[in-house]
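Quick one, tokens below:
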């Protein structure tokens, strides 16, 4: 099963939505998505897992690595709507990862923090990781 992603820009944060399964075969695509997201914002990144059907231990570890990578850039990773098979495998090396029950709750929490309603307008990124070309 494949995994697809898209990135949506909201006021003061970004939402990276995943669909499919984050298994070993999709970790490179997920890592590419994080690499794509990093230069496109300054606020937290909410990883929307509403459409994710499941994730392997390797996929969960990739999420923990993404939290570390974002933290190095002064950004935070948050999760929304984690799959039924649980939250990321803690390895003791990633920063805390806030978990929200769903995407609307995550967005509401951020609107409350900044004291505004936010427009909800978004700009979409690609549906899949950009293809890399060897030079």
């Amino acid at each position: 099963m494949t995994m697809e992603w898209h990135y949506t820009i909201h006021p003061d944060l970004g939402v990276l939505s995943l669909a499919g399964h984050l298994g070993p075969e999709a970790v490179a695509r997920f890592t590419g998505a994080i690499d794509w997201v990093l230069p496109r914002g300054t606020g937290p990144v909410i990883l929307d897992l509403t459409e994710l059907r499941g994730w392997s231990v390797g996929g969960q570890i990739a999420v923990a690595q993404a939290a570390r990578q974002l933290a190095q850039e002064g950004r935070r990773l948050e999760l929304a709507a984690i799959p039924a098979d649980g939250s990321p495998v803690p390895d003791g090396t990633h920063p805390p990862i806030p978990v929200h029950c769903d995407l609307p709750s995550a967005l509401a929490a951020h609107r409350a923090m900044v004291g505004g309603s936010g427009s909800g307008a978004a700009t979409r990124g690609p549906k899949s990781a950009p293809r890399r070309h060897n030079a």
